[in-house]
Structures are given as structure tokens and as C-alpha cells.
């Protein structure tokens, strides 16, 4: 589904046969909200508030940051997707001006995690990765260098949150995402799109590779609901999980086959509804 992580963006956009700005807006207006229950569950568990200094990797169009800021957290988001980041600025920075401020406004940075280094002031005490891993080819392996760059920016003993898809049998969208695998066979490469079933220990394996200490986990229901079939197709294609399929065939063919796969989930009123479960893993830095 959703999202892929921090370093995936520009190459994928160039090959997906759709205007990057349009796809970013589809993500922000249609798809991103499907993960709001996941964000809320994490914030409730960690009691996010005014004492929180959060660094979010792959912050995208900023919904998770907005929800944390509503709890009075101090938030910094990093991403390399300029189109999604521009939408985050519209949401979080209402007035034009320097991105780095001294009055508690969110900080939004274009680049890798090193862009978020804080030479002055206290370090971050929460690191989040809200792009769910465990469904895109190579996504868990690709996350390792991002985390290795970001973890030193976080205070010792702080929380790191990793998120991923739940078991395929608990995710109705898995059947639709298999279209990406079938159409994209032969052209997929790590971090280039394409779906694969989530594994039970995806998050724990990432934590182990980076030297993080797992400290609890949870599952959250995140149903995907759309007003109509067109919104469902646009929302799912905005996740980039179908990029390899688009390159192997063409966007029209992918849209047609995704719509066919969505047909069993279409209700009598024309809406589309798919129950899903996502996981989160809370770790601490060594």
C-alpha cells in the first residue's frame, strides 16, 4: 500500500507515467488518512505531548506530524519526496518563511536523516518510521541505512517506532496488491516498487540489524475505505507499490486490473471497503 520509505521517491515518480504532483495529492487527500488509526495508537501508547521531540523519517505529506503537533509535540519531518513535502508545508507551516524556526513550529527538511542533525538544543527523544514496511520488495533492507543515520540523533534510551503490514490473511488489500506482483514480475528491484507478503518478524529483523532493543508491539485495525472505485484506484496507485507494474505494462492496464481486483470489496452504494491490520514495534536506542 502505502507508502515506501525515505529513499524511493524521485526515480519512482519519473517512471510511473503520472504527474508527481498529482500522485502526491492523491496520497495526501485519499490514501494517507487510512493510517491515522496507526498513528493515534502509537501516540496514545507513548503518551506523546509537550515533552516530545519527534523526528519522523519519510514524513510524506505530514499527517502524522500534524497529529503529533496537535498533542503539543515538537516535530521534525524528513523526506526526499519534494511533492509530498510541499503538501506537508501547506498543512503545517501556514505562513511562508524559513523552515527552521525558534518558536516551536514544525521543521520540514528535504533530504536524508543527516539533514535533521541538531547542533544546538536537546536531541530528539522519539524517532518514528510510519511508512509501513513488510510488503514492498527490499523495503526492510533499505531501511537499515536510514535508521543507522538517524539513531545517533536521538537521545540514549529513547523510543524508536517501526511500522509494518499485518499478516496477509488479516489484510483484505493483500489480494489487490498481488496485482503489483503479477504485472511487475521481471522488472522489480529493491526499493523500486512491487508487493510481497508481509513476514511475521519483519519489524524485529530490522530492529536487530540496527541494534535497537524491542520493547513492545501492537496491532491496529486500519480499514481502507473509499468513496468510489476511482478514488480507490487512485489512492492505491499513489502508494508506489504498483510502480514496477506500471513500468512493465502501462498505467491504464494497471488501473483496469486493480479495479477488477477491487470489485469484491465494492458495496452496493458504490463505496469500497477493505479491512486491514497493521503492526507497530516500539524499540529503545542503546
From TrEMBL:
Transferase keyword on record: yes
Q: Which InterPro entries match?
A: Methyltransf_11, SAM-dependent_MTases_sf
> Biological process GO annotation list?
methylation
Q: Where is the composition biased (Basic residues)?
A: 1-10
Give me the ranges of the annotated region Disordered: 1-22
Instruction: Supply one GO molecular-function term.
Output: methyltransferase activity
Please report the stretch or stretches of sequence annotated as the Methyltransferase type domain. 55-92
Q: Which Gene3D superfamilies match?
A: Vaccinia Virus protein VP39 (3.40.50.150)
**Under which name does UniProt file this protein?**
Methyltransferase domain-containing protein
Amino acid at each position: 500500500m502505502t507508502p515506501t520509505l525515505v529513499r524511493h521517491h524521485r526515480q519512482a515518480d519519473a517512471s510511473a507515467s503520472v504527474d508527481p504532483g498529482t500522485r502526491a495529492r492523491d496520497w495526501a487527500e485519499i490514501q494517507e488518512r487510512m493510517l491515522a488509526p496507526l498513528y493515534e495508537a502509537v501516540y496514545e501508547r507513548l503518551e506523546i505531548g509537550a515533552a516530545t521531540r519527534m523526528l519522523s523519517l519519510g514524513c510524506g505529506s505530514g499527517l502524522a506530524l500534524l497529529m503529533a503537533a496537535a498533542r503539543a509535540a515538537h516535530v521534525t519531518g524528513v523526506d526526499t519526496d519534494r511533492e509530498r513535502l510541499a503538501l506537508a508545508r501547506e498543512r503545517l507551516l501556514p505562513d511562508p518563511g524559513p523552515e527552521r524556526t525558534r518558536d516551536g513550529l514544525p521543521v520540514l527538511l528535504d533530504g536524508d536523516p543527516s539533514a535533521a542533525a541538531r547542533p544546538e538544543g536537546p536531541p530528539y527523544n522519539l524517532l518514528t518510521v510510519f511508512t509501513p514496511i513488510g510488503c514492498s520488495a527490499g523495503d526492510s533492507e533499505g531501511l537499515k541505512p536510514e535508521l543507522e543515520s538517524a539513531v545517533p540523533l536521538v537521545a540514549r534510551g529513547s523510543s524508536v517506532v517501526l511500522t509494518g503490514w499485518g499478516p496477509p490473511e488479516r489484510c483484505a488489500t493483500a489480494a489487490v496488491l498481488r496485482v503489483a506482483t503479477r504485472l511487475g514480475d521481471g522488472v522489480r528491484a529493491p526499493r523500486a516498487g512491487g508487493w510481497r507478503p508481509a513476514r511475521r518478524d519483519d519489524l524485529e529483523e530490522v530492529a536487530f540489524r540496527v541494534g535497537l532493543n524491542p520493547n513492545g508491539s501492537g496491532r491496529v485495525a486500519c480499514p481502507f475505505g473509499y468513496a468510489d472505485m476511482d478514488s480507490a484506484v487512485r489512492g492505491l496507485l499513489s502508494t508506489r507499490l504498483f510502480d514496477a507494474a506500471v513500468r512493465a505494462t502501462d498505467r491504464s492496464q494497471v488501473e483496469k486490473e486493480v479495479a477488477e481486483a477491487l470489485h469484491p470489496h465494492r458495496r452496493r452504494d458504490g463505496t469500497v471497503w477493505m479491512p486491514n491490520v497493521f503492526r507497530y514495534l516500539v524499540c529503545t536506542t542503546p
